[in-house]
Structures are given as structure tokens and as C-alpha cells.
Amino acid sequence: MVQNLTPPAERSPVRRRSRLRPTLVAYALLLPTLALLGLFAYYPAFSGIFHSLFDWRPGFDSPFVGIDNYLALANDRLWWQSFRNLGLIFIFTVTVGWILPLLAAELLITLRGSRSPVIYRALLVAPMAFPAVVTVLLWQAIYHPNQGLLNEILGSIGLGDFARNWLGTPDSALLALLFIGFPFVAGLPFLVFLSVLQNIPTEIFEAAELDGAGRLRRLISIDLPLMASQLKLLIFLATISVLQYGFAAFLATGGGPDNATLVPVLRMLNVAFQGSDWGIAAAMATVLFTIALILSIVIVMSGPKNTKGADDER
Questions:
Q1: 77-130+184-302 falls under which CATH superfamily?
Q2: In angstroms, what CA-CA distances link 3 with 6, 7, 39, 114?
Q3: Among 22, 49, 104, 241, which residue is least crowded by beta carbons within 10 Å?
């Protein structure tokens, strides 16, 4: 047997350099991305936290006020009202906004043949390509009090008494805003639900059918438990998305009427650009950031723990 007589001390530096070279290249390629994130993401966030402690007047003298901006938030009635609206939006998002996509995914996997599921999936997902502003403007036209499609349909079927200015009445404005995009199939939840259902072995469905399990029983006992990790991801994304919600409300109602559709992001923008209270607006942004961070940590840490290591030890 021929032995390698090269001492380990002489071989190790060469091997170490060969291993380090790809790592250094990877770090070098990541540096531009990290620099851009630092400039356009981390710097604005930390700048907002810093300026929330000042009576911030961009371009002018900004005296230090400590937590006074945060104390002002505690007495801001509209700020608390915006969170009430935000809570209703979140509840609607994770209930009605998920039930219909889940129902569509369940129906889609029951289709037979090779072409029809592909065609229907394409038709259901295609609206995702439409710009969000187009969707909001389209629904504004649907809700128009005089010439809107919704009131026209209600009048034609004898329910004209229910017609109203949907976005202009405080009692209906928030609900009308939430239904923009109905039936909510063209979105990430539908794709997530469909991908999970398509990856469930057909033998499981066949066994459930032989045991006499109906569709509802199968949904509760098989489908939803297998979606646990995906539901956790969707809750995480929904939390972040709802806390940043404001585009549709800004475009369709501007937070009105009578602040019925006001959300924290709109309140922050109003305080900053209309009231010129930039310090208080920075405090609002910091509060939203803190809430998002805390909820994200709670959601991420709330998943089932990996017990594989414990099982191996036993």
C-alpha cells in the first residue's frame, strides 16, 4: 500500500484555502445586497426610531422630547380607532379571506382529467397579474352609488332598498373595502392550499373514502392537520401584511367616511403630511415596527418543537 508521506501540516493550508475561496466569493457577492438593504431598509427603520424621540422638523431645529411623542399616541383617539379597524381587517383576512381559497383548492383537486385542472388553475390565478390599483378602481366603479353594478343588480332583483353609497356610508364602508378582490381566490393562500393538497398521496384520500369519511370530515381530520406549517406561514405573512395595510383604503376612501376605514398607516401619513408632526409620525412607525417584530417572533416560536433529537436519545 502506498502511503501519502506529505505531512498534514503541509497539506492543511492548501486545503483550507481551497475551502475558503468559495466562501469568500459568496460573501463578496452578498456585500452589494447587504449594502443596499442597509441603505434602504435598516437605515430608515433606525432613523425613524431615533427621530421618534425628538420634535422632529426636517431641515429645522428638532429638540429632544424623550417619550412625549409616545405619550401623545396614548391620547390619540383616532390612533386607537385605526387599530380597531385593523383588528377587524385581520379577522376578515384569516376567515373569509381564506375560506373561499381553501374551498376553491378543494374543488380543484377533485377535477378529473389532465387538462381541466390546469385550465381552471390558470383561470383562477390569472387575476394575480392585474395591478392592484386596477382592482381597487374597478371595485370603486362597482360600488358607485348611482351607476355602480352592485346597486344596479340589487335594483333589478327587487332589493333596491338595500342600495346605498357603499364606500360613502360609515356603516358599510369598511365591509365594502374588505370585499374588494372578492372572491379572494387569486392570491397566495389559494396557491399554498392547492400545493399542499396536490402533494397529499391519493392513497390517503382513498383510505378515508373507504372508511366512510365525507369531504368535511376529511378536511378537518386530514387536510387541515397536514397544512399546519403552511397555515403558520400564512398567519405570519397576514400579520405583516395587515399591519402594513393602507393602499386600498388610501385609494378608495382616504380613511373616511368619518374615519370608518382609517388604519394606522393612514393615520401616520395624515399626522406626518397634513399635521407636520413628524416626530409623532415616527413614533407611530416605531410602534408598528415593534408590534410586527413581537408578533413575528411569537408566531415563529409557537410552532411544534422538533423532538427528533429527543427520540433518538431515547
A1: MetI-like (1.10.3720.10)
A2: 9, 11, 55, 60
A3: 22
**Confidence check: pLDDT of 189 > 80:** yes
C-alpha cell at 133: 390599483
Question: How does DSSP classify residue 219?
Answer: I
Q: How many CB atoms lie within 10 A of CB 6?
A: 9
**For the chain, domain boundaries:** 77-130+184-302
Q: Is the pLDDT of residue 307 over 60?
A: no
pLDDT tens, residue by residue, 92-128: 999 999 999 999 888 888 887 677 788 888 888 888 8
Closest among 275, 262, 281 to 51, alpha carbons compared: 281
Alpha-helix runs per DSSP H in 116-187: 116-125, 132-142, 149-156, 170-178
* DSSP 8-state symbol, 294: H
β-strand partners of 311: none
pLDDT tens figures, 127-137: 888 888 999 99
